[in-house]
Amino acid sequence: MKVGILTFHDAHNYGAVLQAYALKKYIKDLGYETKIINYHHEDIPDGYLPDDNEKRWEKFNTFIKQLIDYEEKTYINEEQLEKLDIDSWICGSDQIWNTDITIYMNKGYFLNFKTEGKRISYAASMGKKELTKEEEEDFKKYINKLDKISVREETLQEYAQKFTDKKIEKVLDPTLLLEEKDYSELIEDNCHGEYVLIYALVPDERLTKVANKIAQEKNLKIIELNDKKNEKYFCEQVSEAGPSEFLTLIKNAKAVITNSFHGTIFSIIFQKEFYTISRKSNNNSRMENILKIVGMEDRLIDKIEELENVKGQDYKSAFDRLNKEKEKSIKFLKEALK
User: Fold this and answer.
1) CA–CA distance from 211 to each of 106, 246, 257, 299 (Å)?
2) At how many degrees (to 10) do helices 14-29 and 261-269 cross?
3) Cα dist. 124→73, 109, 235, 338 in Å?
4) DSSP state, 51?
5) Residue 166 carries which DSSP code?
């Protein structure tokens, strides 16, 4: 059986490429012929053009081409997708239903085109709590054409269920379908010694305050993973890391301070001491959801004073809870692909 995946596969963003890598690897390991479709709709602007950081750019390109191994041919509309010989289509994960990114309800990311293949959404995300009335009309039409529907967040599950009689499942982000050992081939040697890692998807001085406190308590240096070095910065910076180095930095850190969803996920996968700082925009549903699953809600911090309320980390209990959710996600995928 041929499986084709439509997702944000080549955004130069750690979470985006790693979720694509994980979903393809997991389905391929099930025994299916699996490929990521190089879909870039002609109406969607390319937000990932080459920037000043050439080394980082090239590392992402290498990872995408070698490890995700998508088709070189680019498909720019649904008419081109219709010509592909695919038995089962999967749209997801990532924020493929976020109209702030896709401009409008993009049919391709709902698999709304002519095909004899199954239409499956896996861990699709919308990145917002609700749509406009006009968007809701299209959303209702598109979602009802899917054969099997799953989303990543509980909030989207509840919202989307209003528009269809089909059962909508909540499943794990694809990165959590794999285990720590599955990422071992991507891990590089540690050349940074012992450190506290800051990974801020959105700049926030609260991360620095928490990192300083943890570093002083443990007598560690601080490393910040960022896109571009800041002059006269207070700590060591890593600005040219590709996806493999991202994983390596998290795996070898003594503690991780982040406001990133995937920064949180990989801290859990590698069983790190971590602290997730809430987003000032209040867009914390993804982090809240995963922390609730593993029973670590106290690790979502709004103010530095809340560090006093953080308990120890029981990873045995966390993985017992996580594995129950993983079983549900795997069951959904296997049954959808039958």
Assistant:
1) 40, 18, 6, 14
2) 50
3) 24, 9, 37, 20
4) -
5) S
The angle at the Cα of 293, spanning 152 to 334, to the nearest 5 degrees, equals 50
pLDDT at 70 over 70: yes
Report the alpha-carbon distance of residue 68 to residue 142 in Å, rounded: 27
Distance CA 156, CA 165 (A): 15
CB 151 within 8 A of CB 171: yes
**What is the spatial distance between Cα 119 and Cα 116, in angstroms, rounded to a whole number?**
9
Mean pLDDT, the chain, integer: 93
243 token code pair: 């996806």
Helices 14-29 and 54-63: angle between axes, nearest 10 degrees: 10
Structure tokens at 228: 């571009």
For residue 127, pLDDT beyond 70: yes
DSSP state of 278: P
Residues 6+ apart with CB under 8 A from 24: 5, 34, 35, 36, 68, 69
Closest of 252, 197, 251, 255 to residue 226, by C-alpha? 197
Token output for 222 = 């601080």
Q: Tell me, what amino acid is at 8? A: F
Q: Which helix (H) or strand (E) holds 266?
A: helix 261-269
DSSP conformational letter for 195: E
Largest CA distance in the chain: 60
Pairing of strands 236-238, 221-225: parallel
* pLDDT at residue 66 is higher than 60: yes
DSSP3 helix / strand / coil % (the chain, rounded to 5): 45, 15, 40
Q: Give residue 265's Cα distance to chain centre.
A: 9
Structural contact between residues 214 and 257, judged by C-beta atoms closer than 8 angstroms: yes
The number of residues making up the chain comes to 338
pLDDT at residue 201 tops 70: yes
Percentage of the residues of the chain whose pLDDT score is greater than 70: 98
Give the residue from 103, 121, 102 showing the smallest Cα distance to 112: 121
